[in-house]
Q: What sequence folds into this?
């Protein structure tokens, strides 16, 4: 039986350097903002940019320093991905491995070599590397010295980074994402753009200055990527999930349109090549100035992305302020609770049809190929004495979401390049810093305090996903 998915559909899994690699000071790696996000109550104020925290503090535990030590386990891990039949593996480059401070003239060979070996390991198994150039990370030196992405200099440093990557991995890597979930820099500016706000600083101006710089950097990367190798396919990346109006009340519908626009505005620019009129008007009303430099409009216009990638965990609900009901957590934001949906252990609401809806919205809006680069269920796992986890809840979540995704392709005609399940191996949670929020097909023995052997064990979902891939999505049982 065929599913309507393309024959070369890129099935796989996704991780991010700061959540799995560890080795925070290995091979000459420099310190990055993401290293400084501790586990515990200070995590959120820090990733929001509310707390100035640019060095390690003794009273905090920093889970990213060792994470699951993929830095030394990557061969073992990629062998397991290959055993599941992965066609692609999405990982990110830690900027500070390549340029430890960010503003050096020459890159760090040890960092380049590390990723080269990782890429070669993928290619050995015919796994197509899908590289996120930056997944929430920024060298700390670029923050202390330049103020992070609110400084135009960052565009230059990023340009240097991408030139080095495109050149070094030419012919080996074809799929690239410029910035992970670019829209969340509006929500977590320290993690998304290395921003820390001074007392009394105009946060909105600083945030949109940083956003403009990332947009120009992204378009510049697209230009350079295509110049260096016309085979390169370069995508943007959205923290996705549609916003439903809480009721048919026009004010709620309007609220949902505004919430959608807020989240789509940055990829509107990356996909269409210009700032949407609703955003220009809003920024003008708020007195925010876009820091245009000669040539920016052209680079945005002429170097739009080749495809749209996104994460999908849940849909969200919008309601006008006056009527706003009970809220729940929703991937770095909050949402009005949807009474029709179940929730995960962390309150994220589970909505497979919302996945199909989101795929349709994005395809209708941009008419470019899509790539699902994150989806999955963060849950508490209870391993038996051998480390084996019977994670039927995860299989159920993925089964229903994959069925909805296949409907979007087969019935609605969405053009979809691939699907990478988030945290295909257990890793540190971005929002909470916990290990206990697990997404993987592979269990990693490590707890929230950093105890454990780091032993990898296949979960029940491992064999299930293997079967899904082998049947190109036809066998979801
Ligand atoms: C996205 C991030 C990932 C990832 C995922 C799950 O926002 O791109 O880095 O972690 O969400 O979120 P969490 O780890 O908070 O459960």
A:
């Amino acid at each position: 039986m065929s599913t309507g998915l393309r024959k070369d559909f890129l099935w796989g899994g996704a991780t991010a350097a700061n959540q799995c690699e560890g080795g925070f000071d290995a091979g000459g790696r420099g310190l990055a903002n993401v290293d400084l996000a501790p586990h515990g109550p200070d995590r959120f104020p820090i990733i929001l940019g509310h707390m100035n925290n640019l060095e390690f503090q003794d009273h905090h535990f920093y889970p990213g320093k060792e994470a699951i030590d993929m830095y030394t386990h990557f061969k073992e891990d990629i062998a397991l991905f290959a055993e599941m039949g992965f066609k692609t593996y999405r990982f990110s480059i830690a900027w500070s491995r390549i340029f430890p401070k960010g503003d050096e003239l020459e890159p760090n060979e040890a960092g380049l070599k590390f990723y080269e070996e990782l890429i070669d390991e993928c290619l050995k198994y015919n796994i197509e590397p899908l590289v996120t150039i930056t997944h929430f990370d920024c060298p700390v030196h670029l923050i202390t010295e330049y103020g992070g992405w609110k400084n135009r200099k960052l565009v230059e440093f990023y340009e240097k980074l991408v030139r080095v990557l495109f050149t070094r991995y030419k012919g080996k890597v074809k799929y690239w994402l410029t910035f992970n979930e670019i829209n969340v820099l509006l929500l977590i500016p320290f993690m998304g753009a290395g921003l820390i706000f001074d007392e009394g600083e105009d946060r909105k101006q600083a945030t949109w200055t940083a956003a403009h710089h990332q947009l120009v950097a992204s378009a510049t990367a697209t230009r350079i990527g295509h110049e260096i190798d016309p085979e390169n396919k370069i995508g943007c990346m959205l923290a996705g999930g549609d916003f439903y109006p809480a009721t048919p009340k026009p004010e709620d519908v309007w609220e949902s349109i505004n919430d959608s626009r807020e989240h789509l505005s940055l990829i509107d620019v990356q996909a269409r090549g210009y700032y949407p009129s609703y955003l220009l008007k809003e920024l003008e009303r708020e007195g925010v100035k876009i820091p245009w430099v000669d040539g920016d409009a052209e680079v945005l216009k002429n170097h739009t992305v080749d495809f749209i990638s996104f994460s999908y965990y849940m849909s969200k609900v919008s309601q006008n302020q006056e009527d706003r009901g009970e809220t729940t957590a929703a991937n770095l934001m909050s949402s009005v609770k949807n009474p029709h949906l179940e929730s995960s252990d962390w309150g994220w609401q589970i909505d497979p049809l919302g996945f199909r809806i989101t795929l349709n919205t994005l395809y209708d809006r941009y008419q470019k190929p899509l790539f699902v680069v994150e989806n999955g269920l963060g849950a508490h796992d209870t391993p038996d004495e051998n480390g084996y986890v019977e994670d039927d809840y995860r299989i159920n979540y993925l089964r229903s979401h994959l069925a909805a995704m296949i409907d979007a392709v087969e019935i609605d005609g969405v053009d979809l390049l691939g699907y990478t399940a988030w945290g295909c191996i257990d890793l540190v949670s971005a929002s909470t810093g916990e290990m206990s929020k697990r997404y993987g097909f592979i269990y990693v023995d490590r707890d929230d305090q950093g105890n454990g052997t780091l032993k990898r064990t296949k979960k029940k979902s491992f064999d299930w996903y293997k079967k899904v891939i082998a049947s190109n999505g036809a066998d979801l049982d």
Remarks:
- The mean pLDDT is 96.
- The CA atoms of residues 372 and 419 lie 5 Å apart.
